Automatic annotation (TrEMBL), chain A:
Transmembrane feature ranges: none
Record-linked InterPro entries: AAA+_ATPase, ABC_ATPase_HisP-typ, ABC_transporter-like_ATP-bd, ABC_transporter-like_CS, MetN_ABC_transporter-like, P-loop_NTPase
ABC transporter domain sequence ranges: 15-249
Protein name, as recorded: ABC-type polar-amino-acid transporter
UniProtKB/TrEMBL annotation, chain B:
InterPro entries noted in UniProt: AA_ABC_transptr_permease_3TM (IPR010065), ArtM/GltK/GlnP/TcyL/YhdX-like (IPR043429), MetI-like (IPR000515), MetI-like_sf (IPR035906)
UniProt keywords, alphabetically: Amino-acid transport, Cell membrane, Membrane, Transmembrane, Transmembrane helix, Transport
Membrane topology listed for this record: Multi-pass membrane protein
Membrane-traversing stretches: 15-41, 61-82, 94-121, 229-250
Locations listed in the record: Cell membrane
SUPFAM superfamilies (alphabetical): MetI-like
Origin: domain of life: Bacteria
Organism: Pseudonocardia oroxyli
Pfam families: BPD_transp_1
Primary location group: membrane
Family the UniProt entry places it in: Belongs to the binding-protein-dependent transport system permease family. HisMQ subfamily.
Domain ABC transmembrane type-1 per the UniProt entry, residue ranges: 58-250
PANTHER family linked: GLUTAMINE TRANSPORT SYSTEM PERMEASE PROTEIN GLNP, MEMBRANE COMPONENT OF AMINO ACID ABC TRANSPORTER
Protein name: Amino acid ABC transporter membrane protein, PAAT family
Length: 267, 266
């Protein structure tokens, strides 16, 4: 606490969610979520397909508008109708399952366009930051490639670098490796490990249980729009209290990929 | 004498070739080729059309089409954005515009503007302005639908990525959606340009002076003075000189941007 006291504007809670409900039409997908994520914390969100993980993540930066409840990110009350969402989103990075790189732009332009058009940085400054982040994800030298010329793993690392170039305080990852061939998963997870080690606040929806066990400070198990378990990975993954958590974990760990794909590449 | 189906097909094809040959032969030996040739194409008549067919008629066709197309692009973009707006009134106005001007013959629109507006407001519009307006309004209705389809074909993930980086809806539209939409829309837009080139012939309804003649009117005027189809042939060739390269361009663009996401390097 003492070292944080010197920056009064930075609260120690990065994300606070209270009483969050979200319905699509008459289907209630999130049924009252309460959650706090500390600055520098890595929270992994696990749960079956359709349980509301993406919706929860998308309610954090208000890509989905909550039906009820409060979402506060970095002091911005996102659910306040007067909140300037565009401004708040500058400091919330998001990485999608499908990468969503801008297909008409080169890699470098993908990393500079928001810096220039949103933050107003000049080209030189934006490109310098872009190159740093590209090097960080191991893709220095691919500045002029077009997204379609890259493998899925490379595209996802560019997408991470694109978010990082905005110098966000919080990063949201929605199944960042689910669309990748198994041999490409490791590189993306490595980048995320590095980020976590550097103290980035991260909310990660993932099916990579080994990654969650290793990197997460806390793991959240969601089922049918309700948080059923939340706690350190040793507990939620290692010794789940609830029968449905156990059932989910055994399904993911046994039914999924036979060789543990996320333990493969080192370094 | 039973024939197999294949033999029967061969015989039948042989008979059809024979009939075609006989018809061609009869026409070839009985027709007065000199007269027919002159009726279609007379070198002297053709020569007399130059240079006006190029420096006046072709130039006017190109100018009317180009101005009309630019206006149509502007109207089309605006109306497409209105159709996708969250404001119901904009959507309704845009919908009405598209339905009305796609449903009316272009000829009616040209007449309404060239004749109707001067009658209603008591001022004579400049000739080039009238035809530009008419072509812009007609072309705009088609182009609006084309652009709207192009915008809707941009994957929603592109918008989500842009918004999550803090881009406003306007910036997202300008820097992310429209550039992608225009790529997919470029081939159909080129086709609209071809259609508009032909529609520019409706300027004949409004043109009065010689200097205002575009290709079709020029051809028709020349036709009245010579007993030969030559003017129409020359004028037709001029249209093709514009439209065939355009449709070649459309195919090139189609190939280039149609397969954009299949290009993967090793
Ligand atoms: N835009 C939407 N419209 C209607 N239903 C949706 C929408 N987005 C998600 N859903 C529904 O909400 C439920 C949870 O979806 P999601 O949050 O994507 O689950 P998860 O990411 O855990 O697989 C699913 O049943 C899904 O069909
Ligand atoms: Mg999901």
């Amino acid at each position: 606490m003492s070292e944080r006291a010197s920056e009064p504007s930075a609260p120690s809670v990065a994300v606070r969610i209270e009483g969050l409900h979200k319905s699509f039409g008459s289907t209630e997908v999130l049924k009252g979520i309460d959650l706090e994520v500390q600055r520098g914390e890595v929270l992994c969100i696990i749960g079956a397909s359709g349980s509301g993980k993406s919706t929860l993540l998308r309610c954090v930066n208000l890509l989905e508008t909550p039906s009820a409840g409060t979402v506060v990110v970095d002091g911005h009350e996102m659910t306040d109708p007067d909140c300037d969402l565009d401004r708040a989103r500058r400091s919330i990075g998001m990485v999608f399952q499908g990468f969503n790189l801008f297909s008409h732009l080169t890699v470098l332009e993908n990393l500079t366009i928001a810096q220039r058009r949103v933050l107003g940085r000049d080209r030189a400054a934006a490109e310098e930051i872009a190159r740093e982040n590209l090097a960080k994800v191991g893709l220095a030298g691919r500045e002029d490639a077009h997204p379609a010329q890259l493998s899925g793993g490379q595209q996802q690392r560019v997408a991470i670098a694109r978010s990082l170039s905005m110098q966000p305080d919080v990063m949201l990852f929605d199944e960042p490796t689910s669309a990748l061939d198994p041999e490409l998963v490791g590189d993306v997870l490595d980048v995320m490990r590095t980020l976590a080690a550097e103290g980035m606040t991260m909310l990660v929806v993932t099916h990579e249980i080994q990654f969650a066990r290793e990197v997460a400070d806390r793991v959240l198990f969601i089922d049918a729009g309700v948080i059923h378990e939340m706690g350190p990975p040793e507990q939620v993954i290692g010794d789940p209290r609830q029968e449905r958590t156990r059932a989910f974990l055994s399904r993911v760990l046994h039914a999924a990929k036979p060789p543990e794909s996320d333990t493969a590449p080192a370094g | 004498m039973a024939l197999t189906p294949r033999q029967r097909a061969r015989v039948s094809r042989g008979i059809q070739y024979a009939i075609a040959l006989v018809v061609v032969a009869v026409v070839a030996f009985t027709a007065d080729w000199g007269a027919i040739g002159r009726a279609f194409f007379d070198v002297e008549v053709a020569a007399s059309l130059f240079p006006d067919v190029i420096v006046v008629a072709l130039k006017n066709t190109v100018v009317f089409t180009a101005l009309g197309f630019l206006l149509a692009l502007g109207i089309g973009l605006l109306v497409a954005l209105m159709r996708l707006s969250s404001v119901r009134v904009y959507r309704a106005v845009a919908f009405l515009y598209v339905e009305v001007f796609r449903g009316l013959p272009a000829l009616l629109v040209v007449l309404s503007i060239g004749v109707g507006i001067p009658l209603a407001f008591g001022t004579l519009l400049d000739h080039t302005l009238s035809i530009t307006l008419a072509l812009g309004i007609v072309g705009g209705a088609y182009i609006a639908e084309t652009i709207r389809a192009g915008i809707q074909a941009v994957p929603p993930g592109q918008v989500e990525a842009a918004r999550s980086l803090g881009m406003s809806p306007t910036r997202t539209m300008v820097f992310i959606v429209l550039p992608q939409a225009f790529r997919t829309v470029l081939p159909p837009l080129t086709n609209e340009l071809i259609l508009l080139t032909k529609d520019s012939s409706l300027a004949f309804l409004l043109g009065t002076t010689l200097a205002q003649q575009e290709l079709s009117q020029f051809g028709r005027a020349a036709l009245n003075q010579v007993r030969s189809l030559t003017p129409l042939l020359v004028v037709g060739l001029c249209y093709l000189v514009i439209t065939i390269p355009l449709s070649y361009l459309a195919r090139r663009l189609e190939r280039k941007y149609g397969s954009a996401d299949k290009k993967v390097d090793a």
